[in-house]
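Input record (one chain):
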Amino acid sequence: MRITKHRKKFTLILSLVSFFFLIGCSEVEKKLNDTQSLNTVCPIIESKSNYLLENPRNISEAQKLISAKSNSSQYRNQILNFSLAQLYLSPHSTNLNSHTLFFAKINGKEIFINSIPDETYEFSFIAALNELAQQLKKPISLKSRLNLVEKNISEYVYASRSLEEFIKNNQAQLFKSKPLKKMYFRGAQGIRENELFRRLDYLKDYNLLKRKASPTKNKTNLTSAHLFTRDNYSCSFDSKVFNADIMILKKPEKAYHNIFSHYKDKNNYIIGVTSSVPKVDNSINEFLFQKSNNDSYTAACMTKDQRNHSIFLFMNGITYNAQVLNRLINSHSQVTNAKDFMDTKRSLMLTNPKRKVSEIYGINRVKDNKEAQYYIPSLGRLTILEQGEFLSTFNDPRNKQLKCN
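The corresponding structure, as predicted from the sequence alone:
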């Protein structure tokens, strides 16, 4: 995509953006004005499927767990097993203590679960799954479900782009760990996207992992079933907190996110979102655990468009995902379609001094205030799911460079 007419302008933008990421936006003193790239929208690709996984090549594995002709009772069991299978398909972004969100609907009954780890070895993902099983009235021992999943999915599964990125970012530490090196490397080369890697074996180390799990007196307090409702939106966060625009930007730790879903019809589906900052030092054998104070949780909102299609918005990629998503939904009192959200310029208000950080790309749907305004390539990463006849997925076309994906 062509960004500017003149090389000098491109060099100026690139220099300022690089400067932003090196020293933080609080010290950026120059604005990006009069550039051809401002307000440009990126092409949005829509994919339709009943399944959503980090790597679509693993859909054949998910199909072993969910039957297209299942009745209601069977389907409730199957979506629990499908969710549990994420431990094997996305071991870096879905681990036992990942921050976990579940949006589900069974026979028209809506379910929401938000589970946050308080300690390093607290199994917040399993706590969310157990809560979901109770609400679906399908309790079964974890060991039995792990056994069922491991009997059905293949010993080798496909690596995602996100897993490849995790291996590259942590190559030195992973290479020092004999179990992790064996799992994620072929010789000196890390596993790449679409290459097969040996999945984990939870049953083999089940007793070890169970002993390691911390006793959690406050688990009930950290697992919530409450959505905050405002106007046409229901969100995982309280929008009133973020309307004050008092957040201060800080550089987040690299988090990895897994959004997965099976969509049977508008009254029967499961959507799961896990967020993790895996620390190799916290690993047990081949099993990764995130640090307990992950502040890069995925922010989520749901609404309906003019066709009465349910739309789910998931924001991650920066520390204050909720503030960016809150400002985005504030600019859409009426929802026409999912693409409108993706085309909208995202922004963040900062203080000391008060200023606005906006994306270079996108349509500005909010009138500019008098605050100083600065531009960067992208703010967070937005994923949109729209439920119609099929599940439509819209992935963010932005990236951290001066071009579209």
